[in-house]
């Protein structure tokens, strides 16, 4: 059982550093043609499996004596130093779940405050209360989830783009709201806030944030022309390149390349493969622990 604990610790370490870096590098090489939904599924699995590995390792170390001493009371079989490990395993599970709930609550409150501010500093566009316009020369467009959702654009963006290009940008932001992409990033933002010193949390958050931009593009291009979408991206990126801290030239190049190519026809098989890989990865830590306890 102690050996199983060490194996689970090694698995947790591997999932916290080399595997995320390798997955990010592989996805960066193929994201012009890869399915972004499959990428998000893999990242979810890596995060959950890493947490399960740490929790299972703590429990394995703590309960090691019980494997070979059947029928013995817990307080009689465990040395005093194993109790903190057992508490740590349970505490880590509570901490991970609590952090996720706290992040969800914080995000909800932040969105509510943001909508209150928008009601004061913005105006509805064309009589549509779900689209707000803020007065700034910067080319901005983003969405605020919650309720029916709010799409925010700037006067600088509206002046920069023609009607078709504006429709493309608005369609992209509406897809973020319709698909609830804010929920996809919630767990990764929670893990990064709780463990900012782990590079894997930042890598995963950045990768998923990039993937949902591509997901919104793929969904929005069904209702707007690719050429208008590309023109809008080109103009906005040129404007943001002057100093926006959120500007990512590599991601912009990927998005333009995908929009310049035909829609990827086969998304079912990559997603099925991703689900299979994810289930196997997430199931390994608890199955190892349970199997060791049951069959030892």
From TrEMBL:
Membrane as UniProt keyword: yes
Gene Ontology BP term (one): proteolysis
Key words, A-Z: Hydrolase, Membrane, Metal-binding, Metalloprotease, Protease, Transmembrane, Transmembrane helix, Zinc
Co-factor remark: Binds 1 zinc ion per subunit.
Required co-factors: Zn(2+)
Annotated Peptidase M48 domain residues: 114-235
Stretches that traverse the bilayer: 6-25, 37-63, 83-102, 274-295
Any one GO molecular-function label of the UniProt entry: metal ion binding
InterPro entries on file: Beta-lactam_resp_regulator, Peptidase_M48
PANTHER family per the UniProt record, alphabetical: POSSIBLE SENSOR-TRANSDUCER PROTEIN BLAR, SLR0241 PROTEIN
Family assignment from sequence similarity: Belongs to the peptidase M48 family.
Record-given protein name: Peptidase M48, Ste24p
Organism this protein belongs to: Brevibacterium yomogidense
